[in-house]
Write a structure and sequence with these properties.
Blueprint lengths: L2 E2 L2 H17 L6 E7 L3 H17 L2 E7 L5 H12 L6 E4 L9 H5 L13 H8 L8 H12 L8 E5 L6 H10 L3 E5 L6 H7 L2 E4 L17 E4 L3 E4 L10 E4 L4 H4 L5 E2 L6 H22 L1
Parallel strand pairs: 1-11, 2-3, 2-4, 5-6, 5-7, 7-8, 8-11
Antiparallel strand pairs: 9-10
Helix pairs in contact: 1-10, 6-7, 6-10
This protein binds nicotinamide-adenine-dinucleotide.
Amino acid sequence: MTILLDGKIVRDSVAGELKNKILGLEKKLKLAILQVGNKEESNKYIEQKKLFAEKIGAEVIHVRFSEDVSQEKICAEIQKLNGDASVHGIIVQLPLPETLDKNLIIQNIDPIKDVDGLTSANTKLLWKNEKGHVPATARGILTLLDYYKIEIKGKKVVVVGRSQLVGKPVALSFLNRDAIVIVCHRGTSSIMSETKQADILVVAAGNPEFITKDFVREGQVVVDVGINVKKSEHQSEEILHKKVVGDVNFAEVSPIVSAISPVPGGVGPMTVLSLFQNLLDAYIMIEEK
Ligand code: NAD
């Protein structure tokens, strides 16, 4: 029978331990979220983070800028938060408007408070397999597999997607756990033959349900990172039905493989959990400094 890698169960289980640790801290654990504009998707993700924070006893400050804010103003706010001893983590909700230089803005975050793990200091630590903040999705995937006792060392892991936010950190995280890693992307000509070789297949392409039964074989573990909003076939102008699907065609693939994460309810909840695990790590690093 196929095992469902249920991110909600794992999140709730680990959240209990996280809450106990947070309750034992001297100071309130605090995350600052910087948002530019008022994108519906971003609002939804921020809301999820706020709800989770409330559940585990952490605090979130939400700093919202208008769409036409200057880069200097955002950087000045980050500098202020870097110097604020009551704040342990700072994240910039992505995506930012095209007019802003995302990389330049993120580099302003103190690496210890960079709980999204996106500054070059943290990227370098991940590259060197040294202690730092690993991007939340990558950390979440490993926590999910560990929870289900899925072995990583020595396994062939195929990652589809090589973005800075997901694909590359995921590939490096597996490499750091002694897996054999292959990364596929839009330039890969024979994706199917690569994905079929995997013991663990991680898909982060942003391409709705493109991994069909032809890409997999029996015995594989499939982790679907994709979050794609698909319009319902019954969509009419009056009623908008939106359905969230992954990059994997769950109905086709799940009967074949040995374990699979669903969308929604797989990697998504793990990403939120991992952000707050990073935040707790930041608190400890700040205290130890
Ligand atoms: P991205 O667009 O930055 O990168 C996509 C990558 O996939 C690129 O490297 C591209 O080359 C590759 N790709 C796209 N189509 C492909 C194809 N047909 N064959 C091979 N490679 C292909 O996206 P991203 O930020 O890495 O996000 C990927 C997906 O993961 C999106 O659906 C996003 O919404 C989702 N996501 C989920 C979480 C979560 O917590 N579950 C977190 C972040 C992103």
